[in-house]
Specification:
This protein is of the alpha/beta class and 300 residues long. It is built from eleven helices and eleven strands. The strands form two sheets. Strands 3, 4, 5, 6, 7, 8, 9, 10 and 11 form a nine-stranded mixed beta sheet that branches. It has a two-stranded antiparallel sheet with strand order 1-2. Residues 1-58 form the HTH lysR-type domain.
Length: 300
């Protein structure tokens, strides 16, 4: 059954005459009659009752026309929606980002993108890097702003663009003697209690892999799901934590001092996506916009 056959039956039903329907469709009357007869033979049931020069829908014909009109309307709506996508008038991008990114950078990014592409819908989720990469692999999100841990393989086949690099510093309570140092060497953490976010955040893996490579064993407490919570515990002198310099400046707990680590350790936030941009124009626009937002030179 073809779309043209649906149109023929609906038009004949509307006109009540094969002759008038043929004129409306710019077909010859015999050609249209043959099309209707062939369809009825294919279905094994009459759609029209023919009385002299008039035609009337049978009971089966009424059901056919009702469904045919719905199908034709849906096909028209689908064609119009695809035209919107082709003309970049519609689309959706599901974004996942680290909490600190959502606080510092993402609102401005989304605001600018919405101004340029107002018909593309954006949704935002806050998660740790490991969770973001898993969500990307499971197609729960389209793009992630996440830290990639160099000591672990990437999840699935992903594309990644480095956006910004930030120094990782130690967050120390003001009463801890290490708070008075210009920089803390990792060896000095051997007898300290470390408070790190859980494994959903790749920051933990970066720090612990550096300590492990130096043979440093510490008492580690992975009891927090957010960097903010780790810093709150440091503020109560429960131990030492780690965060980006941007996070330390943003949260600013009164009893927490951020101290550089020696040798310096940094983290890079990447824009990560999995899909082929050629087939997802909305995502392509977002990736390009984000790359320009962070002044990253990227060829898509």
């Amino acid at each position: 059954m073809e779309r043209s056959q649906l149109i023929y039956v609906v038009t004949v039903a509307e006109c009540g005459s094969v002759t008038r329907a043929a004129e409306k469709l710019h077909l010859s009357q015999p050609s249209l009659s043959n099309q209707i007869i062939h369809l009825e033979q294919e279905l094994g049931i009459a759609l029209f009752a023919r009385v002299r020069k008039r035609v009337h829908l049978t009971e089966a014909g009424e059901v056919f026309v009702r469904h045919a009109q719905r199908i034709l309307n849906d096909m028209q709506a689908l064609a119009e929606r695809m035209e919107d996508y082709a003309a970049n008038r519609s689309g959706r991008v599901r974004i996942g980002a680290l909490p600190i990114m959502c606080a510092l950078h993402i609102p401005e990014l989304i605001g600018g993108f919405h101004s340029e592409y107002p018909s593309i819908t954006l949704t935002l989720q806050e998660r740790g890097s490991a969770e973001l990469l898993q969500a990307l692999e499971q197609s729960e999100i389209d793009v992630a702003f996440a830290i990639l841990n160099p000591s672990e393989p990437a999840v699935g086949q992903v594309h990644s663009l480095p956006l910004l690099q930030s120094e990782i510093c130690a967050a120390v309570h003001v009463d801890n003697p290490l708070a008075r140092r210009d920089a803390i060497e990792l060896e000095q953490l051997a007898d300290q209690t470390l408070i790190t976010p859980n494994q959903d955040f790749n920051l933990s893996g970066i720090i612990l892999s550096h300590l492990s490579s130096l043979g440093i064993s510490c008492q580690v407490q992975n009891i927090c799901s957010q960097i903010d919570s780790c810093l709150a515990l440091v503020n109560k002198n429960m131990g030492i934590s780690f965060c980006s310099r941007a996070s330390a400046d943003y949260y600013r707990y009164p009893n927490v001092v951020s101290v550089s680590i020696k040798p310096a350790i940094s983290r890079t936030v990447y824009l990560v996506y999995k899909k082929d941009l050629a087939f997802y124009p909305s995502l392509q626009h977002f990736v390009r916009f984000a790359a320009e937002f962070w002044k990253t030179n990227v060829i898509l």
